[in-house]
Amino acid sequence: MRKKDILLPIIAIAMIILYFATGKKSEIKTEYLLPQNIQIKSINYIDDDLDITFEKSKDNWLITKPENWPANQELINKLMSKLKNIEIISKIDTKDDKNFEFNDKKVLKLKTDKEDYTIFLGKKDKSYRFQYVKLSDKIYLVDASFTNYLPLTINQIKDKTVYNIQNPKNFSLKTDNETIEITFDNETSIINGKNIDKEKTKKLIELITKFESNTFADNNTLPKDAKKIGFIKVKNTQKEYAFELYKNKDGDFYIPYKNQVFEIYSFKLEDWIENIKKLIPKETGTK
Question: Which of the pair, 92 or 20, is modelled with greater confidence?
């Protein structure tokens, strides 16, 4: 047996004995770029031609630049968590920032009730795990994981919910080759004239209550080859939504709504329709 194989377990045991004997362990204090209790009210993120501003309104985040639209709350909350926990790896003792590629085209501006923060985002190190940043004329090397949550495009961070309606009463869908009519009555429902039991009605409500797109059309404009092929309508006792449904030559679907054009990939809408149709009782024939 090699000496190293004997020594390593002995050293490990000695360290454990020392830990319990002293009741102490070595502690490394983690420093963070921003106060961990920071309450961010708005974010302006600039990355070359991308210039996005988010503002908090009560418990939700809204995109206010370059357009007004709800932000994806889940993605924004993850970004907030990461921003509050940017670990400082080291402080760079220099005022010469020419080698770190800082400029006005890569900036993160944060506003709070007490103080504003402007963070210049420089280059990453060779491993791409760490990022050089400049805050208040001081340069730091920090954990770069927060950059994974910064949007690459505005469509990436926009809320893609087409509609969200509780306790639907009626639902209608018409495409170039499908027609579905649903009426909900307490705990049961009727699809295309066929009665649906309680268990299947619950699954049906889960499918109907909320619908999301995959993304948004380029420049929020219908493609020139998109043709109107039907509609989606859904309502409860308080709200009613009606959407025109378009389809392009590639088979993808589009819904224009409130100055936006939702894009739904063909497989998503087709799978949604198929899951609804699976709940329709099959005809039972007699010989």
Answer: 92
- For residue 214 the two structure tokens come to 């995959």
Closest CA relative to residue 146, chosen from 56, 25, 254, 32: 32
- Structure tokens, 60: 């939700």
**Cα(47)–Cα(63) distance, rounded to whole angstroms?**
16
At residue 130, what are phi and psi to the nearest 5 degrees? -125, 150
The whole-number pLDDT of residue 287 equals 45
Q: In what order do the strands lie in the sheet with 188-191?
A: 194-196, 188-191, 179-185, 170-174, 227-235, 240-247, 253-257, 260-264, 215-216
Q: What is the pLDDT of residue 284?
A: 58
| Contact yes or no for 219/155 (Cβ under 8 A) | no
Question: What sign has the CA pseudo-torsion 150, 134, 41, 146?
Answer: positive
The CA-based angle 157-163-167, given to 5 degrees, is 135
Q: What SS3 class is residue 123?
A: strand
How many residues belong to the chain?
287
Give the C-alpha separation, 96 to 142, whole Å: 18
The pLDDT of 121-148, averaged and rounded, is: 94
Structure-token pair, residue 68? 């007004």
Using alpha carbons, select from 140, 136, 137 the residue that is nearest to residue 125.
140
pTM listed for this prediction: 0.80
- Tens of pLDDT, residue by residue over 231-264, are 999 999 999 999 999 999 999 999 999 899 999 9
